[in-house]
Amino acid sequence: xxxxxxxxxxxxxxxxxxxxxxxxxxxxxxxxxxxxxxxxxxxxxxxxxxxxxxxxxxxxxxxxxxxxxxxxxxxxxxxxxxxxxxxxxxxxxxxxxxxxxxxxxxxxxxxxxxxxxxxxxxxxxxxxxxxxxxxxxxxxxxxxxxxxxxxxxxxxxxxxxxxxxxxxxxxxxxxxxxxxxxxxxxxxxxxxxxxxxxxxxxxxxxxxxxxxxxxxxxxxxxxxxxxxxxxxxxxxxxxxxxxxxxxxxxxxxxxxxxxxxxxxxxxxxxxxxxxxxxxxxxxxxxxxxxxxxxxxxxxxxxxxxxxxxx
Length: 310
Hints:
About 50% of the residues lie in helices and about 10% in strands.
């Protein structure tokens, strides 16, 4: 890139991204790898629903939400985004901060106290892991009151299914008891099998009466807009036309319509374009087609094979 270039030479990029196109290859690759939040319709709807739950008054049986999606469909990103929008706020007149939202990964269910330990860790609280579950539970309840916690986000809910039937029941009872004692709303996310975790308990299904399933992306105007937005945010020096029909079709084919894979595939193709001095710095259909990339279904089949033979 010659030194007489200016950000206005990159009109295919959004205004904020244009100066980044003048950076070194390594700097631009780091920007691409970091990524950024894109305000898409489906994730936005989930966040709006979470905001409604967060602002709702406390009730005896708090309404809860179950978020379902394929692996890498954006579930964790949505929860992390919602947490970022509701970070703890420090009251200058108080020795403690207010933490409206707590995010944890679901334990496997083998240890009744594991969920309480994960909550305490998320709150940066001091505790003794060897304490009995009842002790940890009491500490969580006290902290929830002190920090004014209003919502608990549980990611990777399907991991609970790794436990025995008795262990899964213990975890369900722990979650139910926590909502009874604290009146916090709970939102849980997992793959399709996560539906079964609460389905066996009628009291829990009555609370998790709202389920949102994240969609698989199809070749339509919304997918085109997603790819156009990605292109505008990735500091490549030549336009790629990602939303063009042939390009869109190939990206959806290789990503299998999975949101996380769409974004990661485009990122990998962009990095490949930066590192390839023989071609113009852009993404074309051939680069997407020949990129060293393992599809979601192939990864899933490999995991099944590994479990059977490992």
